[in-house]
Amino acid sequence: MLSQIFAITRLNLLSVPQRWGPSLVIIIGLAGVVAVFTALLAMAQGFQATLKDSGRTDNAIILRGGSGAELNSGFGGDTANLIRLGPGIRKGSNGKPLASGELIVITELMKKGEKVNGANVTLRGVEAPSFELRPQLRIVEGRKFTPGLREIIVGGGVTRLFDGVAVGQTIRMRGSDWKVVGRFEAGDANDSELWADAGSAQSAFNRGNGFSAMRVGLESPAALETLKTTLTADPRLTVEVLQEQAYYSAQTGQFRGMISVLAGVVTFIMGLGAIFAALNTMYAAVASRTREIATLRAIGFGALPVLVSVMIEALVLSFIGGVIGAFLAWALFDNLSVSTLGQSFTQVVFAFRVSFQLVLNGLVIALVIGFIGGLLPAIRAARLQVTTALRGQ
Amino acid sequence: MTRTGFILANLFHKKTRTWLTLLSIGMAFVLFGLLQSLNLVFSAGADFVGATRLVTQSRVSFTQSLPMRMVPEMDAVPGVQRVMYQQWFGAVFREDPQIFAFAVEPQRLHDVYPEWVMPEAQWKAFIDNRTGMIAGRGLADKYGWKVGDKIPMKSNIFPQKNGSKDWTFDLVGIYDGKDEEWQRNTAGGMYVNHAYFAEAALFGGGNAGIFVLKLEKPEMAESVASTVDKRYENSADETKTQTEKDFQVGFVKQLGDIGLIVRWILFAVFFTLLLVVGNTMAQSVRERVPQFAVLKTLGFTDNNILGFVLAETMALCVIGGVVGLAIATSLGAVVAKFAGPMLPLAVDWRVWVAGVIAIVVLSLTVGLLPALRARRLKIVDALAGR
Hints:
heterodimer, A: alpha+beta, 2 domains, two-stranded antiparallel sheet, 12 helices, B: alpha+beta, eleven-stranded mixed beta sheet, 15 helices, elongated
């Protein structure tokens, strides 16, 4: 039995080059499905990973109650000072509580190649501990800004996608020039931001001594609860305390949901189309070999080996298609840097991530489609009436 | 037998294959319709906005507020008929943040946006009622609001002077759009009275996010824009003035590179489709070589044969394409209903035009090669099976 299956399958596969045209339909059809599926999910995954990496479990973000996002939040310096005294905040290298007031301002930059419409980019005014709170952030070109001066350092993601922000250039905001003095890389959502001294930003943007949010380092991830309980119970404060990682991860939900739905719908519809195409091809393949199959049956080959061989041909072709599709998605999209609108209504720069798991899922989809597309034609082949088939044509 | 009858008979000489091909073309056009409408959302989407309005925002970005003292200054710029200002309110209703709520001066909104249609009595109520609000028809229907209701609303930005972020407004009017496009934009929109907002909010009352300048004549757009921007140059509140259309386009472009990805998918879908249909046609012609030879023997010209094959492909593509686009149209309506105002998806006439072009291009590309092959057939060779 096995040897029969092997013999027919070999015969089938070896004859594929003689019918390249129809076989190519399956291969390219599935390459299309898998490429689109993989690329879309790689985008969702890249976005999610970028934001998730931005947050740590032992950092907390403190916003004004009911704000939801840093951009909407804001409080005065007195509130900020009360927060700095909160319990559970670890000491920084200078012996003071590791807490940093940060000011969010949105500025417009032109994407490379764009002349008319600016895109929103976060400008973050930071105090010195902000750097200690994000150890992953390194200056890779130039230097840090000098406190008190109108100087800016720029995230790598911004430099890659936007014009006018290279080290040495100046950005004009509210009637004064800000000099870009350095570039930093953090490998996460921080790369989508411009950073300046908090004091300079407060004076330039008329914010007095106010901040948008506070970032604090915790003694341990568990200290979050202590801090949260104390601060929310304090009658002088109306704040919400969030774990940094949870804050960033929560922002991915909507985008990820949208892309996943898009990927699902597109893959489903394209997959249906591919199934019809595969059916077509395999029916044609069976039809063109009617006499051959009948002959095999006549000289003693069983119905099952014929069925299996047709199925295997369909599966092999779909697998090849799937591999090509996954490869295309990887070659065209892996690490491709793009940006979209994040929660704070600013651009988040992220890169596609084509992971092994995604490729695997794509291949499974290809095989499922190949299976369905091969089944009916295989049954027809197995049920062929030997005598009529031999007489026919 | 008529020619049409002959073509249809030919088309269905292999029923299974034709059906399967039709189905895959249909599926591809369902996708084409949906993705093309998505593409339109991301690329243009602002064609319906009139050319008689300019939008002035802070040069830093439109989230940076501008002081209200600019209102009379802009009113005085030659060529400006009326100025409207609006402040983003950050409204959240029952955890739904997809509400575009702005604090405006009612009279100025009425003057600058004649596209919003509402009974004069309701306009008057909005003008006279400090705690009044008006909602777009779509939004009001979504939550079953009726004129006279008290609407509890949270702001995720502005607390009242007592520190609470809970606001209550009286719904005094529900507005419609003047046409289909504007009506679609009522799905998430609402306005509250700026005077009340300015008085009750803990901060932000003296500012407005953007100013909308209604012009006397559209030709004055450029001169007014540069006058305004010059006036505030080198001040702390530098401005950027552009046409309302450019402003809208910029807003949508913020969504970033998603449009690009959609275009890639469209391309992949189309290429796949090309191959499937092309192959079917090639195969169909190959199988019928003897038939064509007979037809030619009977006296049909080479061009007749070419026409037959092309007409067959055309029929396949048109039937599959139109059915697919029709399905996409109804699916799009369903998606738009669920997605809410952030994704105003609509498979409208623009998508259909693109779809029809795609159908024609597709049938010509895939039909031409087999058709030429059929045309070139030599009767003797074909009949002999060579």
